Amino acid sequence: MAATTTAVFSIFFVLLPSLSAASSSPYHSAATLFQNYHTMLTTFKIFIYTPSKPFDFPNAATASLFYTSLRRSPFLTHDPTEAHLFFVPFSPDTSTRSLSRVVRELRNDLPYWNRSLGADHFFLSPAGIDFSSDRNVLELKKNSVQISVFPVVSGYFIPHKDVTLPPLSTSTLTLLHAPVEKSTATSFLGYLRWDGETESQLVNELKSDADFFIEEKSEPPPPLNHIRGFTESKFCLFLYHGDVASMVEAMAWGCVPVVIVDRPIQDLPLMDILRWSDLALLVATPPHGGAAARLKQVLNGLSEEKYGEMKELGVAASKHLVWNDEAQPFDAFHMVMYQLWLRRHVIRYSRSEIV
């Protein structure tokens, strides 16, 4: 793509090398991951503060799965002196005032927060929290690791500190039966499952193009319609801040994800582990019409060799994005834990140094 076209249609992507190449994998560093993963399993310790009252995340399935898996996991310790990180639990509907009180009590009643000003703490907030003028909430936001549901509202996510949870697949069963290899013969260039509720100029243009399969979500959905979309399409389209639940499923079936977004994004799940810039196309549509035509130009411009490489590595990467009722090795829960483990090294101050 010529550099002069970026003002009209921004494209942010890097293509994957093949798995058959010796140095290729969907990871930033496969050797580092697998060596450190074992160390994490045997050494990583987390202390959970006792919440004021029991709660759950009823409207955020991935958050609920993570919270449940964490409380069941062998990473927990009842001895805060051996903990690498501290988890601050609070209900997703906690007000700013109540959240400030939670942090204030940690600061005043226990010694651990003040040793790092909260940098060795993390919390789970499905939607993320905004910056606040309140000192306690601001310190939590700026210093502690926030875990949120992907995608996060702009401004609520701090890159390289915060973490997002992989989306929950619409059907774990279909993931289990997804083929390792997919036929190169496809009926459609792109597939989009659209909620049908929000107005989209791009979707309206794609509907009239036979090269695209647009499925409007219904309750209940047509049987296996989305599987047809994954298996008969080269690319699966996702509107950023739209329905991304089936992204993992699409990758498992060998459909290369294309995220429609108006800016580079930094909150993709497992960004410390997976080379997302190598796994997906991130495409921004032009502001004034012609979006479908330009999108086709981009997708058709991808060589078959590069497409095959992306598809192959997408299937491999999808294994780490799957949620299980009972956590399994290298699944979504353990990969999120691995990202937390990478953040365990923080400066801790002695009590005499704290002012």
UniProtKB/TrEMBL annotation:
Gene Ontology CC annotations of this record: Golgi membrane
List the taxonomic lineage. Answer: Eukaryota, Viridiplantae, Streptophyta, Embryophyta, Tracheophyta
- Keyword Protein transport in annotation: no
- Domain Exostosin GT47, first and last residues per copy: 43-284
Give the similarity note: Belongs to the glycosyltransferase 47 family.
Keywords in UniProt for this one? Glycosyltransferase, Golgi apparatus, Signal, Signal-anchor, Transferase, Transmembrane
The reply to whether Glycosyltransferase figures as a keyword in the UniProt entry is yes
> Which organism was this protein described from?
Erythranthe guttata
The record's GO molecular-function terms, alphabetically, read: glycosyltransferase activity
Write down the Pfam families for this protein, in alphabetical order: Exostosin_GT47
Annotated membrane topology: Single-pass type II membrane protein
- Protein name as it appears in the record: Exostosin GT47 domain-containing protein
